[in-house]
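hey so u asked for the seq, here:
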Amino acid sequence: MEAILSQWVQKYHDFMKGADAQIQDYPLMKSPILPGAILLSYVFFVLSLGPRIMANRKPFDLKPLMVVYNFGLVAFSAFIVYEFLMSGWLTGYTWRCDPVDVSDNPMALRMVRVAWMFLFSKFIELLDTVFFVLRKKNEQITFLHIFHHSVLPCNWWWGVKFGPGGMGSFHAMINSLVHVIMYLYYGLSAAGPRFQKYLWWKKHMTAIQLIQFVLVSIHISQYYFMPSCGYQYPIFIHLIWIYGTVFFMLFSNFWYQAYTKGKRLPNGNAAVNSAIHQNGKAKNGKPKSN
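ran it, structure tokens below
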């Protein structure tokens, strides 16, 4: 048994030698133990500890905190978009086959940094569900919601560890751009009734989300039609394609049910609500993208 364990440990160390050396010293990136512990603690809190603590308590009024939280993520997401653009997408990337640059080139290092920031933002967004618990919005805490919030940071940890930047970073940039819009909406919504007049564009939210997934899927699909593409870790390409396709189907179903058929779904589309995060007030069943 000890010999088998030793072999697996050695295989793990050999595998980790393929990681990008430039990301090693960033917080959470030395090993998967700490981020894994955070995600497990998150799941334990939202499924067990949190509801038990709140069982005999009144919901917390978190509106002031949520205003700061939402607008903070607007600013952070906007900065992430800018850094993605300046570290490659407007300064040398072809928007087609763009391999991961593992050199110590300043632009490559800048891409590593913004890839890590995107990953870090996903850990911050775990607070969405924590707020649900503290506000006793338990109907929003479904298995798929928790699964989505847990799996995305996990997948991106490995993506950032082994392939920060390159073709696979396009969906992170687009997702961050959508988050600027989404968190702005939810920040204004949480700020109170006096800001409702600024939310006339809420009817376009689902369309923006659908466009996101179309762009991501189209861009990443190029990989499958190229004679060759020097991308070091194709598994990340496959995962991104699956992500874009699955979420496009979920949001298309929401669009069909809410607008084409004219049905107003209670609490929004359950499948979508469980797979995406919502904070603030979701008006008229508008879903919120990850």
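Residues 33 and 175 are 26 Å apart (CA to CA). The chain has a mean pLDDT of 85.
lmk if thats what u needed
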